């Protein structure tokens, strides 16, 4: 596991614990729903991960992109599939997504090393 | 074809003609690229359409959503697949997407009639 | 009830029925959560409505703004409170919110008539 | 003056009156500032109008775009200058701006007729 | 005062000085307006801070969120009130706000320590 | 050249290499188009850079802003022109752009040192 991925997962885990320690019912329900929509259904989890990835790219959320890039790699998405998701996000969202797309590719390549 | 779909396609066609009549090279190149990224590749056109749909929903662009809803139906996307794309877009983009999601479902149901 | 409010409520109701007729569990859960967060709690429903209103204004969602403007009036928000929410939304979101702010005021004034 | 421009200006005027009738100091100050930044300075009013236009396009605000398209025409912006602003907005903001770009061109062409 | 709050305030102060040293009238007027809208009025400063906080969360601006989180704590907002603002922002803005919500809670908890 | 500018350019270069090493045709075409729209035309490159800058500010993309601030300085934009672009972006995009505006000014002033 790359250093960046490890650090990302640890921080995410640590901050999630802070949020969930508040025991706020509505926030917990949202987090549950956020997991539920990516589970296998009529569309498989792999396709859903790509949907999450492209949505994160066009909304330009680095942490969300990193999360879905890692998940995409874990689910066996290939290089060309990744390129095509990035291309669609780039065309839909415009050049303003490029800084995020660059960091997505850096993470993607690091995970292959 | 539903009245709404027909009207949407006609207006889209008519306005595209106005834009492209300007013969601006960069705009033409963008339009070409916008078609290219949705063609069959490592991911099939159907999956790419769903990527375009979820990106349009989270960016809350009614015309873009309508375009991809129509294309999704033409490519044979089923009801449950559609629901799952809508669910991901809703969770990623929040309640602010709901007015767009409502209009997406209205169009989807009208195309089935 | 103003004509605009009546029409807004009817269309909203009609489209919600189309969405909920799909019986998609995750979408239903989201809709439930969307109601839950505005209920009286440590903050009263009135304050929460204003939070929903300012969020809708800065995100520039006309239907969301209309919904919260109507609710704000129903909950007894006064003119000056309304002005102050609009002012904060305008300063946070910039001149790009002005077309939405104009329509919010039109609806607000029509409801007083 | 095209019918669309006339209708746009009348509605804008009418709704501005509703907003300003409230005599809210902060909203008035914002409206004043919104006029001030487009006046001739180190950059001329024409260039500033183009800055307002491209900002409105990438933020996808139809009313803001229409306002700046009309102003750009009134200030003597030419077809090629207009094309180039549109191209930059399209590349920065992505395909999601296309529906707005189409309507901007429709208005632009109607004003030439 | 937590180390993070201290560092945030110092950087904010230092950069504001750079901006305001330019003596640009319109930017100064905007900064003045930005202070004015949060002052006690028909709504008290506390409620207005919460409006600023939720607007910042849905617009996903970390620095703006940090500023309003610190102000909310200084004005005596309680844990449950904070949770409810976060919940509304999360539902309105969707999962894309979660990385910002996590950092908001980290800051909130650090200020209690 | 300031340390920040140097570091920015190196990272940008390094990450662009990772992206372009993928040899993805559509991404390459987009990057080509992204260069093309800023070249001298009916509007000169200097004006186009300001269009890119204001678009980046209202979309709140730090890397995009930094890129255009550096380019604006290289093309000889003066202090007052820079102020006026910042003012328009601030008024259009609202207080939510302020953290980005602060960093833009810091970079601008560092380049003068």
List keywords for this structure.
mainly alpha, CMD-like (chains A, B, C, D, E, F), 113 residues, peroxiredoxin activity (chains A, B, C, D, E, F), 78% helix, AhpD_core (chains A, B, C, D, E, F), homohexamer, AhpD-like, AhpD-like (chains A, B, C, D, E, F)
Short description:
Helix content of chain A is 78%, strand content 0%.
Structural write-up:
6 copies of one chain form a homohexamer. Chain A is mainly alpha-helical. In chain A, 78% of the residues lie in helices and 0% in strands. The first copy, chain A, has a single domain, classed as AhpD-like. Chain A has 6 helices and no strands. Chains in contact: A-B, A-C, A-D, A-E, A-F, B-C, B-D, B-E, B-F, C-D, C-E, C-F, D-E, D-F, E-F. At the C-D interface, helix 5 and helix 6 of C face helix 1, helix 2 and helix 4 of D. Chains A, B, C, D, E, F: It comes from candidate division GN15 bacterium. Chains A, B, C, D, E, F: One of its GO terms (molecular function) is peroxiredoxin activity. Chains A, B, C, D, E, F: This is Carboxymuconolactone decarboxylase family protein.
